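Please fill in the sequence for the structure shown.

STRUCTURE ENCODING:
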């Protein structure tokens, strides 16, 4: 049975803003307090989804979170009606309030880790929502993420949904941003690469000194067990701690894979040669392409600035591969020169498509951050909630929805406007009908 990789992009939420909440993410901190454009951000994201769908790829969408997160603010002691809760929180604890307004769920590479049925012991697709314990503004996401995933993949005969790992730094899990799957093609069993930043229970091991390592070895192992992977289906690789300290907060900032291609910077990992040999031995693929970018070709600084590795590598209907890159890669002289040379070499990557996702890039997320990869066979694909699949009709409906409900500009002090919460809830209530999700939001259930 034929299988496909389907990308589910996060729909940018109505409170998209620049609060600089993500320590270790240089772009996020550099653009803190800038005025954002939620409407433009959402339309950029939808245009990206439509572009990939028009290329013949399977493309879906995941709904955003409800923000501001009034329920968390009440849990933290703010009382009164919603307007008072928002006003008091902004005045008394502005950092907490801004964290509760984050639209960071747009980066669905952090939504979950997904293992396809070709790899798992029970031959079902397994989902584990990331607990995101390292950042408060993201640690409030897993409950709604779980509901959205269950509404999107509801067939229990084909899909298994696990609870997030324990909400403790020892099991810090950042989802698919630290997970890559290699395979001959998506119909075959593959090797899942779990990239971690540190050991939680062994402080003698190398770890970063400046910025936090968000993914632990113990979390990666737990997910492999939950998903029923055999030792032959998993490889555990430590991220180079020096690169974390330079701003490589997730593995998908320095490496990306697709089918039989692993595209990575030479400084990305520890014990690189040993781990590459382990992948090759376990995968047993006739043709495995390691594309290692040397520092002399692209510096770590330019890789981070352009998000060269936070690109998507996709397999086109023709069988050739393409890189989906942000326009920042085209604008960076060193990176543009490298990509121009790459597509002329003897690798499966033959095309580069540049997309404008500048609103996301300013907040520290490129094309790869915006999507959750789900490999599905034809039966599983047919079991996906069809209203979450991007086609011309859904694209038009969602574009109309964004233009109707989103603001053009959002400054930091706009986030405590009581009208904004009303606008968000009105929009999300309509969105759940468009996407046929049911009552996934707490305000709907209350």
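FILLED IN BY: designer on duty
SEQUENCE:
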């Amino acid at each position: 049975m034929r299988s496909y990789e389907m990308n589910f992009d996060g729909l940018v939420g109505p409170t998209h803003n620049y609060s600089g909440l993500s320590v270790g993410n240089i772009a996020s901190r550099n653009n803190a307090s800038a005025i954002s454009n939620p409407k433009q951000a959402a339309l950029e994201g939808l245009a990206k989804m439509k572009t990939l769908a028009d290329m013949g790829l399977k493309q879906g969408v995941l709904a955003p979170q409800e923000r501001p997160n009034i329920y968390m603010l009440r849990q933290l002691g703010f009382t009164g009606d919603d307007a008072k809760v928002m006003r008091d929180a902004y005045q008394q604890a502005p950092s907490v309030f801004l964290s509760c307004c984050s639209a960071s769920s747009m980066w669905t590479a952090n939504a979950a880790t997904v293992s396809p049925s070709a790899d798992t012991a029970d031959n079902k697709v397994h989902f584990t929502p990331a607990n995101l314990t390292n950042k408060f503004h993201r640690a409030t996401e897993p409950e709604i993420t779980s509901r959205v995933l269950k509404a999107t993949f509801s067939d229990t005969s084909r899909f298994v949904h696990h609870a997030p790992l324990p909400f403790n730094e020892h099991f810090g899990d950042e989802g698919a941003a630290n997970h890559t799957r290699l395979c001959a093609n998506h119909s075959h069993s593959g090797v899942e690469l779990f990239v971690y930043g540190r050991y939680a229970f062994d402080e003698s091991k190398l770890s970063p000194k400046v910025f936090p390592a968000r993914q632990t070895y113990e979390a990666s192992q737990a997910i492999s067990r939950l998903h029923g992977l055999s030792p032959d289906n998993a490889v555990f690789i430590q991220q180079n701690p020096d690169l974390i300290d330079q701003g490589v907060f997730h593995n998908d900032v320095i490496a990306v894979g697709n089918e039989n291609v692993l595209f990575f910077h030479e400084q990305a990992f520890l014990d690189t040669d040993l781990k590459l040999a382990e992948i090759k031995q376990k995968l047993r693929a006739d043709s495995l392409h390691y594309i290692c970018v040397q520092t002399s070709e692209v510096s770590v600084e330019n890789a981070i600035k352009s998000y060269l590795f936070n690109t998507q590598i996709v397999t086109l209907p023709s069988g050739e591969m393409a890189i989906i890159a942000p326009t920042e890669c085209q604008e960076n002289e060193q990176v543009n020169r490298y990509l121009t040379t790459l597509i002329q070499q003897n690798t499966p990557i033959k095309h580069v498509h540049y997309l404008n996702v500048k609103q996301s890039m300013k907040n520290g997320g490129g094309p790869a951050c915006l999507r959750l990869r789900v490999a599905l066979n034809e039966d599983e694909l047919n079991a996906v909630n069809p209203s979450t699949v991007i086609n011309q009709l859904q694209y038009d409906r969602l574009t109309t929805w964004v233009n109707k409900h989103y603001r053009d500009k959002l400054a930091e002090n706009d986030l405590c406007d009581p009208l904004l919460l009303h606008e968000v809830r009105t929009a999300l209530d309509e969105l759940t009908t468009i996407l046929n999700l049911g009552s996934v939001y707490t305000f709907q259930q209350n």
